[in-house]
What does this fold into?
Amino acid sequence: MQSIATPFVLALFCVASCHTEPEPTLVVVETPAAVPVEQSVKPGINDNFKNPELKVEEWVERFEGESREIFAARAEIVAAMGIEAKQRVADVGAGTGPFIGLFAEAVGREGKVFAIDIAQSFVDHLAKRAEDEGHPQIEARLCSETSVELPENSIDLAFICDVYHHFEYPRSSMASIHSALSEGGEVVIVDFYRIPGVTREWLMDHVRAGKDEVFAELDDFGFDLVEELEIPGLEENWVARFRKR
It folds into this structure.
């Protein structure tokens, strides 16, 4: 005899099957590998500038004496850079500002000069100097040990004068400059020769990398060497122009 319960049981089985929640799908999300933190290439190189008791007047005397060859040749250096009106220039590690007025005159009122430094005391001094000298196109800005802290595509030219050897994190610092530069933007570096048996002992100890090593680093960081500039009066310093790759 046929059981009358069979259709009922089948109906219950169908209802239960139709309303069973699907098993959750396991989704594996791969996170990118952590970017290694760049190690300091010369710990303590900027301790003097990070000192809150820094006395700007002492550094003015040190940086802006005619016995300092880059100060004596500052007009020739700026002229050789070929800065054009309306350009945006960043003086990276501007210090007491011996170049900022020359840059302001070169770019004109419609240009822009970012006077950047790691020391707040210098930044305050740069802002006051720009105001006193009547250059509203100069903006003084504080940077960090790893970045110039400028927006992307905000400058056409970066100037790094006797400062590259003070980059404690050169890869990070140059990456921030690369990002801030416009397409085809350039970097002009002034720094010391480091030649055993020729360079003064103090410079040999103070300067981390010689010219060839700096050139190799800039190539690795995404910059092509354009030219070396010959500046009359410079004996201990070299000058070179690089272009963002």
Notes: The two ends are 89 Å apart (CA to CA). The first helix runs from residue 5 to 18. The beta strands are 88-92, 112-117, 138-142, 155-161, 181-192, 223-229, 237-244. The longest strand covers residues 181-192.
